[in-house]
Design brief:
Elements lengths: L1 E8 L7 H17 L4 E3 L13 H4 L1 E2 L2 H14 L2 E3 L3 E5 L2 E9 L5 E6 L9 H4 L8 E4 L2 E7 L6 H8 L5 E5 L8 H15 L2 E5 L2 E3 L4 E3 L3 E3 L5 E4 L6 E8 H10 L2 H4 L7
Parallel strand pairs: 1-2, 2-4, 3-5, 9-10, 10-11
Antiparallel strand pairs: 1-16, 4-6, 5-6, 6-7, 8-9, 11-14, 12-13, 14-15
Helix pairs in contact: 1-3
The structure holds 2-oxoglutaric acid.
2-oxoglutaric acid (AKG) binds next to loops.
C-alpha cells in the first residue's frame, strides 16, 4: 500500500494562536492539493513555547484546536496528526497531540510523556503517562512528541504491539542540535524497522532558532524526503508500507527480543 505523507514545516507565531490557526489551515489546503493521505503538523503549534502565558493562551481541553483539525480533516479528506497544542484540563496544562481520520473523527489523544527540563517545561506542563498507538489511513502507528524521542524504551513499548510507522512531532529542536535530531530519528527507524515521519518547525522565538529538516525515513534508516533547515515548506513523500513488512521478515528483531533481560 502506497501512501503520500505530507509534513507542514511551518513557522509558529509565539503566543498567537489565531495567527497559527490560519497557517495550519493553509497547510491543509496545500497538502490536499499535493494529494496527501496523511498530514502532520509540528509541536505546540497553537502557542509556541509561550509557557509563562499558558493561563491566558492554553486551549481549554483542546476544544478550539480539535474543532479546527476535525474540520480540516473532513473538508480536505485528510488524515491529520495534529502536531501538539498547549491544552488546559482540570487546572493543569498539557502538551497534547490530537489525531483525526479523514472523516474528521478523533482517533487519538496523547499528552507528552517526557518533559524537557532544559526549557523548564516541567515547571509549567504536566506529563502524560499513557502510550499512543492508533490506526490512521489503514496503518497502525505510534505518535510521540519531541523529547520523547530520546527515550527508545518508550517507543519500543509502543512498537512492540505492532505499529509500522512512527509519527513524530517537534518544535523546539534548535539548529545547533539538528544533527542529533537526524541521527536519533534514523536510529529509531532502524531499531523499530518502521517508517518515521517527523515534523519540526522553522523560525525563531525569544530563545532559539529552530532547525527544520523535517524528515521521512524508511525502515532501513534511509532518508526518503527532507525539509531544508530554514524554510517554511510542505515536505511530501510516497511511502510503501509493504516494504516494511518485507524488512521485518528478514531480520526479526521483535521476535528475537529477550525482554526478561531488560530491566
Ligand atoms: O531533545 C532535544 O534536544 C529537544 C527536546 C525539546 O526541545 C522538547 O522536548 O521540547
Amino acid at each position: 500500500m502506497t501512501l503520500k505523507v505530507a509534513i507542514a514545516q511551518m513557522n509558529i507565531a509565539l503566543g498567537q494562536p489565531e495567527v497559527n490557526k490560519q497557517t495550519v489551515a493553509q497547510y491543509a489546503q496545500k497538502a490536499s492539493e499535493a494529494g496527501a493521505d496523511i498530514l502532520i503538523y509540528p509541536e505546540m503549534w497553537n502557542t509556541g513555547y509561550a509557557l509563562t502565558d499558558l493561563p491566558q493562551l492554553a486551549d481549554n481541553d483542546g476544544e478550539r484546536s480539535r474543532q479546527l483539525l476535525a474540520r480540516l480533516a473532513k473538508t480536505y479528506q485528510l488524515n491529520i496528526v495534529g502536531g501538539s497544542v498547549a491544552t488546559m484540563r482540570d487546572g493543569q496544562f498539557f502538551n497534547t497531540m490530537f489525531v483525526f481520520n479523514q472523516l474528521g473523527q478523533q482517533v487519538a489523544r496523547y499528552d507528552k510523556a517526557h518533559l524537557f527540563g532544559l526549557m523548564n517545561e516541567e515547571k509549567y506542563i504536566a506529563a502524560g503517562s499513557q502510550p499512543n498507538t492508533f490506526e490512521l489511513a489503514g496503518v497502525l502507528s505510534a505518535g510521540v512528541i519531541c523529547y520523547d524521542i530520546r527515550f527508545p524504551e518508550w517507543l519500543r513499548t509502543m512498537m512492540s504491539s505492532g505499529p509500522q510507522a512512527i509519527l513524530y512531532v517537534s518544535a523546539e529542536w534548535p539548529i545547533q542540535r539538528i544533527a542529533q535530531w537526524q541521527i536519533l530519528l534514523q536510529a529509531r527507524a532502524i531499531e523499530n524497522q518502521a517508517f518515521v515521519v517527523a515534523a519540526n518547525r522553522v523560525g525563531s522565538d525569544r530563545d532559539n532558532t529552530f532547525g527544520g529538516r523535517s524528515l521521512v525515513i524508511d525502515p532501513l534508516g534511509n532518508i526518503v524526503a527532507q525539509g531544508t533547515d530554514a524554510d517554511e515548506m510542505l515536505v511530501t513523500a510516497d511511502i510503501d508500507i509493504a516494504d516494511e513488512t518485507a524488512i521485518r521478515g528478514q531480520i526479526p528483531v521483535f521476535s528475537d527480543r529477550r525482554p526478561e533481560l531488560y530491566r
